[in-house]
Amino acid sequence: MPLHSNRRLYQPAELPTLLQLSQEQIDFLVRTGQLKSIRIAGEERFDSHELDELIQTYKQIAERKSPSVQ
Asked: 9: part of which helix (H) or strand (E)?
């Protein structure tokens, strides 16, 4: 699988600012399997594609919950 130039790996400390969530909320997402990390050379990293999928999932949930505006 080729590496894509738009893919980025984030360090755990970057996620609260990036997602505008507390560290406790990030830890909850990881603990519940909603956000997956990978380990490279023993260091935890988060793939930007995983973050995109998480955001898309929450967008879909929000769209289902809000009534359609016509």
From this structure: strand 9-10
Alpha carbon distance 30, 66 (integer Å)? 26
Distance CA 57, CA 3 (A): 24
3-state secondary structure of 18: helix
Q: List 45's β-bridge partners, or say none.
A: 38
The model carries a pTM of: 0.78
Distance CA 45, CA 40 (A): 7
Q: Where are the beta strands (DSSP E) in 24-69?
A: 38-40, 43-47
Pairing, β 38-40 against β 9-10: unpaired
**What amino acid is encoded at 60 in this protein?**
Q
Residues 46, 18: Cα–Cα separation, whole Å: 12
> Per-residue pLDDT tens for 1-16?
445 568 899 999 999 9
